[in-house]
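We emphasize that the prediction below concerns an isolated chain of 431 residues; any contacts that depend on oligomerization or on bound cofactors are therefore not represented. The input was used exactly as deposited, without trimming of termini.
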Amino acid sequence: MSERPLANPYRPFEDDDVSSGPFAGRQKAFDFLYQQVTNPLGAQTCIVLGREAIGKTALLRQFNSYFDETFIGAYLALRGRRINDEAGLLRALAEVATAALTERNFSLSRLSETQPPDVPSRAWFGEQFLPDVFHIIRKRRLVYLLDDAGALTKAIADGRLPQDTFTYLDELLRANSGLGFVLAMDQRYEDQIPAMSPLVGLTDSFRLAALLPDEASWLLREPVRSLYRVTEEGVETAYRAAGGEPRLLQNFGYELYQRWLRQPDEIVVQAEDVKQVSALVARQNDEAFARQWSVRSRNERLALTAITSLVYDDPLGAISPETVQAWLIDSDYALDMTSVHAALRALEYDEVIEATANGLRVKTGLLQTWLLENARMNQSPVPSAGSRRLRWAALALLVLLAAVLVLIVTQSGSPASSAEATAEPTVTLVR
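Result of the prediction step, given as a token string:
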């Protein structure tokens, strides 16, 4: 029997330390980062965009693993950190830089204290702290990795940071050739990038997408290669269910590992084994799927509801924008084709749906199942083909009953009218 590692290698949960988990792919993203931070003619900055759980934090945390020792990444998580003023921000930047140098075993005897003295914060950070850092690291490059950078724009809007914060950070870059910034932000706030000028611009952005099949294969196999083997069919089943989403794939890896711990003699994971853990993975991501649904616009929800129901009614049927619109009209949610196309483009851009050889489909199989069970428009159940047929049958029956009622009333009223029309005999005729 293979020797078991001390702990499950996968990190699928939100509070996990993703830096200690397996990391797959992202070669193009790292290439872009390298090009940006080493470009002598550029600003040596970039911003990584992506939806929830697509791997932005994991990418930043893997910076030092990808870049050689001439780069020193200093990671700062802005989510949950209350930035009350500029002094607090600069102090946080100093703290993470100091921690990065300590991890690399640099001598800090020449480094200024991270608690600024009674001088203006900008003067202390830019004229004392950073020069000391660059004296220590010499020709190496210090790259700040700012996670959830949207917190900075919010702090500026709230008045907790100066309006010229991004201008000041850009000035630091221009004054220090060994400095760089890599920012990460949820793509829902992409429209905030212009407010981050001149530090970063739209052309300095890279969008993270779902993992490719070969990257998913590595993630599910390589960390456990010495323990058990996942078949090609098993990998394909997990990939379709997860839609290439890194966290969902980590979830599958985690649960398959837990399954192996319970049955260590079974060293081959088949597609059926993956299907058996799918329900557990789905339950663990129920809230995440609900959040995905909640952030979609009304029209996007309508389009998702239509696609999900059409696939349920006919799994092999081709789904096009026209069939989506027809389903919506049939369900009393009429949208014009311009609105349908706009909703579908937004969903495809966010990789919620994809165009396949058989038309439009929800990309993540587990999300498709969640939508069937939970997606509601105006708190009404998603109508299936059967329920729609029953509704039309009921309507037709009502029309028929109304017609019969009118006929009965008409016929019952005719004799009375005839009697009323009969003339009384005249006096002459009586005679």
